[in-house]
Amino acid sequence: MQVIQNQRLCFPLTKFLLSNLLPTTYAASASASLLAPKHGNTISSLSVTAHSTNVPCTPHGVEEYVENAFDDEPKVGILKQKIEVLGISLEKTCLPGQYYNLFCPKCKGGKLKERSLSFHIIQDGEFAMWRCFRADCGWCGRVMLHGYIHLLIHVFADNNRTEESLGLEPLGPKLIAFFKDRQISEKTLSRNAVRQMSDNKGVIAFTYKQNGLLVGCKYRTLGKRFWQGKGTEKILYGVDDISNAAEIVIVEGEIDKLSLEEAGFRNCVSVPGGAPGKVSPKDLPPIEKDTAYQYLWNCKEHLDKAARIILATDNDPPGQALAKELARRLGQERCWQVHWPKKDEFSSFKDANEVLKYMGADALKRVVENAEPYTTAN
Ligand SMILES: [Zn+2]
């Protein structure tokens, strides 16, 4: 099986390889694991188990998978043309929904000629994206299916971004006390790598990571002034916590994400930039023009896997506008919404952290568990 696993990492498994070079049972299992995200139903109906050598599957079944895999070829073909202009050689085929390690045209894999470019075509074929994982290169970008070659290619001048290079250090007593007052524990702060600026110990640094790599930072003063570090990737805060999550919670701020963790939910992400003033009256723009929500599209591969998305945005008009804008993009049918409990006769709690602070972790857990299907009347 070692051969198959290596192939899966580095090369697309071709029809030829699947059906001719490998024993039938191996071919079936490799095919199933490659195509599982897209053809889950078909695969489960045939009881094919990835990496099993006792697969009850006929060669005919294998052929069917492989043929189906090319349903999206026109879309992928268009993407491929755009990508190859950039010097990325896709070799034979690259199936949507899979990751491939290719040669990076910028650094050519360095001295060791590594296949350092992690390349991915999104499941629905709407765009492709890549990143070179060699520390002294870091070339990354994205090509959209529609419109011109819309590129977000940015070569990081500072792709060796580290906490040290950003001038970050572990939280000191002042900020730990700030979080303690909000019922956020040191354990949660540590797991989420919350830091402070070393030259201004009153500034919180929320580190943004993707695939474990530091890709940016958002800063916050105790006086509630926010700004983003230069070149920060537009992604959801905590995105690594929702890879492969069937159910996710989306909140409006980093401290709300930390609050959800105190209530037992790690499968939570925060939007990076707060809420819009109001819901846009216009139709949804195409993805490449949807600049205010690029952070969603950049995390689409993870969001697509979620069957249920609980919107736990703030209990004010901008927070509700954000929920609506998210639901429009994520598909209202899989969105649920929390209802923040009453604070007193006249008002309700504002967000996850307020509930945690004044009602406790169990109460916050119940609020999330009692989310209801999202409706525009909410
Ligand atoms: Zn490179």
UniProtKB/TrEMBL annotation:
The keyword Signal applies. Gene3D superfamilies: 3.40.1360.10. Residues 246-335 form the Toprim domain. Residues 1-27 form the signal peptide. It comes from the Eukaryota. InterPro entries: TOPRIM_DnaG/twinkle, TOPRIM_dom, Twinkle-like. SUPFAM superfamilies: DNA primase core. The keyword rRNA-binding does not apply. Keywords: Signal. It holds the Pfam family Toprim_4. GO terms for molecular function: 5'-3' DNA helicase activity; single-stranded DNA binding. PANTHER family: T7-LIKE MITOCHONDRIAL DNA HELICASE, TOPRIM DOMAIN-CONTAINING PROTEIN. This is Toprim domain-containing protein. It comes from Crotalaria pallida.
